Amino acid sequence: MSELQIADDSRGSELFPEYAALYALIAAEVEGLTDQHLDFESDTWEWSEWSIRRQLSHMASLIYRWLIIRWDETLFPNGSHGVEDVEGVATATDRRMDKEHYWELPVIMAKLEEGIDLAQRVLAERSVGFLRSQTVLREDPGSAEADLIRSAHKTGVTLTVDGGTIWTVEATMRHIYFEETTHLYNIQRLKRAQRLPTAVEVPRVGYWTVEGWDTSEP
Length: 218
Prior knowledge:
Elements: H1 12-15, H2 22-30, H3 35-39, H4 52-70, H5 72-75, H6 86-90, H7 105-125, H8 128-133, E1 135-138, H9 144-151, E2 157-159, E3 165-168, H10 169-193
Antiparallel strand pairs: 1-3, 2-3
């Protein structure tokens, strides 16, 4: 995220230029993985209870859940997002896409790329002032993880008196990027647990860099 002072009438893409390289970064890390690699899970560490395949499916799904389900008409009046099967990609109960339809790696990656493209479209079409002025209420369950997530946001996330949080679009875009980098870090840990080499350097931003986050290694 850019730390420079950016005028309110600037495009959101100036505030989040790193989105342009996000898909390629993730794709490079999972290129060539077999089904055995993708489906490895372990109960040794909490982060290894989700396989690489599930991490990727969640990484795709969360983009649609935030941008379409939570922001809805604010970002996409009259359903102008153009995404087919919103239910399948955004509303599965286990925080991933519908695994009956989105299971094979190329299919998951196509939806992840589409989601990142959608995020870039929001940033290109909206001003910084818009991103910072629009808000939505999220009824967060209280947890240590939720506290750590809030602590990573210097602006844009406000705790309400009844325990919910008010998010700006700017904070949402930051949250999506932080989630992507954190789950990419998890993917690398899952690869290391299988004695596989990692391929990219994960940007040192996101929830995995917050003091108190579980950064245990295999």
